[in-house]
Amino acid sequence: MSDIGFLIRHALRIEFRNKHGIAGLVVFSLAAVYTCYQATGTRATMESWNALAWVVLLFAAFNAVSKPWADDSENMRSFLLHTVSPQSWILARVIYYGLLLSGLGIVVFLGFALFLGIDQFPGWSAFQFWVGIEATALALASLLALLQALASRAGGGFGLVSVLGLPLMIPVILVSTRYGMDLMKGIVFLDTAHHLLFLASLTGGFVALGYILFPYLWRD
Amino acid sequence: MTLNVLQYLLQISPLEGFFFGSGKAMVVTGVALIILIGMGLWLFAMEKRIARMNEHVDELLNSQTLKKK
Amino acid sequence: MIQNSWKIGGLALLAYVISMCFLVPLGPGLLEFQDAQSAGVVAELERKVSVYRLVGLNTHWDEQPESLHVYLKHKSSLVELPVIEVNDATHANVGLVLPDTIPSKSWDVFTSHPSDGTLLLENGLFTEGFVIDKEATWPSPEVTEFTSNLALHFPFQPRIFETIRNLMLHVPMWFTMFLLMGIGFVASIRQLSASQSELHDLRAEASVQVGMAFGILGLITGSLWARFTWGAWWVDDPQLNGAMVTVLVYAGYLILRATVDNKRLKARLSAVYNLFAFVILIILLMVLPRFTESLHPGKGGNPGFNSYDLDSSLRMVFYPAVIGWMLLGIWMYRVRLAAAALNQKLQQL
Q: Model pTM?
C-alpha cells in the first residue's frame, strides 16, 4: 500500500513541479467548452448539452493520458521494476488518472454550467449529473491507465491510445449519455441509478483486468 | 431433372412459379454454389502451394546450415 | 485424404445449406385485411355488406375455394365471416358481417383451409363505426380446422417473410467469428505464459484476421436484413452496438500490431490487448443485451429464433449451416496461419 502511495505522491510531485502539464489540460477543457458554447449558437437544447458534455469529457481524458508518463524512460522503468511490484504500479496509475480526470470532470461540468446554462436540469439533477461525470471519469481513468501503458510501450503515443481506446469507450459513453438524458428529462434518480452501477462495475472490471495484465506489459 | 423440379415448383403456387419459374432462385443458388466451390478449390490450391514452398524453404535452410558447418 | 475429410465435409454441408436456403419455398401466411371500399352481396343475407379484401402470401385458395373459412377473433369472441368470392390463390373478398355491438375495436383475422391449415393475422382489423361493449358475448361458431398438407417449407413470420433465409447466413457468421476470436483468445493466453517463443502469436493474428472477415460479413448481412425488415440500414440497438464495437476493437488490435516493429514486443503487447478486449467484449455482449429492449429477434416483441421458436424446417438447415460455416472458417484460419508461418520462415533466409 505504501508503494502505491509513494508512486502517486511521486507522480503528483512531478506533475506540479512543471505545472504546464495540468494547466494545458485545463486550458484545453475550457477552450473545448467555449467552442461547444459557440457551436450550439449559445443556446443549447437538452440533447446537445448532454452530448457535448460527454464528448468534451472523453476527449479531455484522451488528452490527459496522451502525455508520456514522466517515469516511462527506460532507466526509470528498470529502476522501478526492481523496487515496486507491477500491481502497485498499475493501481497507482489508475488512482492518479482517476484523480486527474475527476478534476477535469469538475472543470468541464462547471464550464458547461457557466456557459451553456444549468436550467435544463430540473431540481437536484444537476448535482446527480455531476456524480455521473465523476463515475464516468473513473471508468475512463481505469481503462486508459492500462491502454496508456500499452501504447507507450508500443511507441504509439496519442494516436494509438485513441485507436485502441475509443471503441472500448463507446459503451461507457453510451451508458453515460443515457443517464444524462434521463436526468434532464426529469426521471427520478433512483430509476436511473442503475447506469451508475453499470459504470462502477465496468470500472471494477477494467481495474481487475489491468491488475492481471499489467505485469506482462511492464517487464521485458 | 431441372425441368421436373421447375414443374413441381410451378404447381405449388403461381407466385412461386413466377419467382422460381423465371429461374431467379436457381440462378442465385447456382451463383452461390459456384462461389463456394470456387473458394474451396482455391483454398486447396493455396494449401498445396504453401506446402510445396515450405519444402523448398526447408531445403534451402538445411543447405544454409550445412554450408555454415 | 482422411485429414482433409473435414474440409470436404464442411463444403458439402455448405452446399446443402445454400441449396436449401434458396430453394425451399416459404410457407403460407396472411398479409392484410383491407377495406375494399365497395359493397357486395352475401347470398344468405340478401343485403349489401361492405367488402374486405383478404390478401395472403403463398396461399392456395384456388384449390377448393369453397373450403376457405375466415374468422374474426378477439380473446374468446369468435365470429365467422362469409367469403363472397375467391379471386385467385392469394386474394379473396370477404364480407364484414358483424352485429352492431361488438366487444372490441381490434380483431385478429384467421383463416382455415385444407391446403394451408390455420393462418393468423394479428390485429388485422380495426373496426370503425360500431358500438363497443366489452361485456358483449357471442355464441361460438363451429370452427373447421384443417392441418396443412404442404411440402417442406419455411415458416411464415410477420415482418420477416422471405428474408428468413438470411438466418442461415447472418447468424452463423457471428458464431464463426466468436469461435475464431476464442481461438485467438486461447492463443494469446498461451503466448503470455510461454514468453520465449512467438508461435502462438501467429495463431492469434491469423484467427483475428479471419474472424474480422466474418465479422464484417456478419455486419453486412445484418444490415441488409435490417433494411428489409425494419426499414433502416442501422438502428440503435444493443446487439448492433456490440457488433460495431467488436469490429472496431479488433481493427484496433490489427493496427496495434502494425505499429510495433519488435517481434517479441509485438507478440506480448498484442496478446495483452487481445485478452483485455476479449474479456470486455464478452461482458458487454453477454450482459448488456440481457437488460435492454431490442428490435433484434428473440428479444422484446419480435418473433424469436430461440430453440422453442425455431421451426423444424429451419432447424434442419440452420444447424448444418452453423457447423458448415464454422468448418469453413477454421479452414480459412488454417490456410492463413500456414501462409503466415511460411512468411516468417522466409524472413529467416
A: 0.85
A152-183 in b/e form (b: 16+ CB < 10 A) is bbbebeeebbbbbbbbbbbbbbbbbbebbbbb
**C332 in contact with B, Cβ within 8 Å:** yes
Closest CA to C280 of A203, A152, A136, A54: A203
State whether residue C232 sits within 8 Å of chain A by CB.
no
Q: How far apart are CA A103 and CA A123, in angstroms?
A: 24
C106-113 sheet: strands from edge to edge: C77-81, C69-74, C106-113, C117-126
Q: What is the CA radius of gyration of chain B?
A: 25
Q: What is the CA angle C194-C196-C199, rounded to 5?
A: 75
The strand pairing partners of C119, in sequence order, are C111
Backbone angles phi, psi at C217, to 5 degrees: -60, -40
Asked if the Cβ–Cβ distance from B36 to C348 is below 8 Å, we say no
- C138 in helix, strand or coil? coil
- Render pLDDT for B26-58 as a digit per residue (tens, 0 to 9): 899 999 999 999 999 999 999 999 999 999 999
Q: Which of residues 161-200 of A touch C (CB under 8 A)?
A: 163-164, 166-168, 170-171, 174
pLDDT in tens, A133-149: 999 999 999 999 999 88
d(CA A82, CA A73): 15
Q: How far apart are alpha carbons C245 and A171 in whole angstroms?
A: 8
What are the residue boundaries of the structural domains of chain A, listed by start?
Answer: 2-219
- Kind and range of the H or E element at C247? helix C238-259
Largest CA distance in chain C: 97
